[in-house]
Amino acid sequence: MNRNKIFYWIVTGLFCAFMLMGASMYVLNNDHVAQEFIKLGFPLYLIYPMAVAKVLGVLALIGLKNKSLKEWAYAGFFFEISLAISAHLNVGDGDHMGAVVAMVLLIASYFFAKKNEIV
Questions:
Q1: End-to-end alpha-carbon separation of the chain, Å?
Q2: 3-state secondary structure of 86
Q3: Which of 86, 82, 84 is nearest to 107 (CA)?
Q4: Any residues with CB less than 8 A from the CB of 31 and at least 6 apart, and which?
Q5: C-alpha dihedral (13, 14, 19, 24), degrees to nearest 10
Q6: For 22-50, how does the pLDDT look when each residue is reduced to its tens digit (9 = 90+)?
Q7: CB count, 10 Å around CB of 81?
Q8: Longest Cα separation, the chain
């Protein structure tokens, strides 16, 4: 296994763990997440669909061989994280750094996936 492929799996594993922790928070700590959604101005009915979307996106990134679905998963995560960064910056709560870390991991994962022709 070459160095780029090792970096791909490390970065993608960290990103997927980050997304799965977020999805589990949406389900297991719903009260806190609901307060955050209200603070950011998002409707509460998005909590569970976003948790499901995150899990499905992770499954697409690590489990599927279909390159088209992986591209869509990367795009979906990009838009979700971009909106999270924007929402936190607009509210001015200072909680945007988690989303920034997720974005860095996502971009690194995509970069190494392209280098290894996984996507």
A1: 17
A2: helix
A3: 82
A4: none
A5: 90
A6: 999 999 999 999 999 999 999 999 999 99
A7: 23
A8: 46
Three-state secondary structure call for residue 87: helix
Burial class (CB in 10 A: 0-12, 13-18, 19+), 49: exposed
Structure tokens at 81: 């994280």
Q: Which two tokens stand for residue 90?
A: 């607009």
pLDDT tens track for 51-96: 999 999 999 999 878 899 999 999 999 999 999 999 999 999 888 9
What the block records as the tokens of 62 is 């690590």
How many C-beta atoms surround the C-beta of residue 17 within 10 A? 12
| Token pair in block for residue 69 | 């679905």
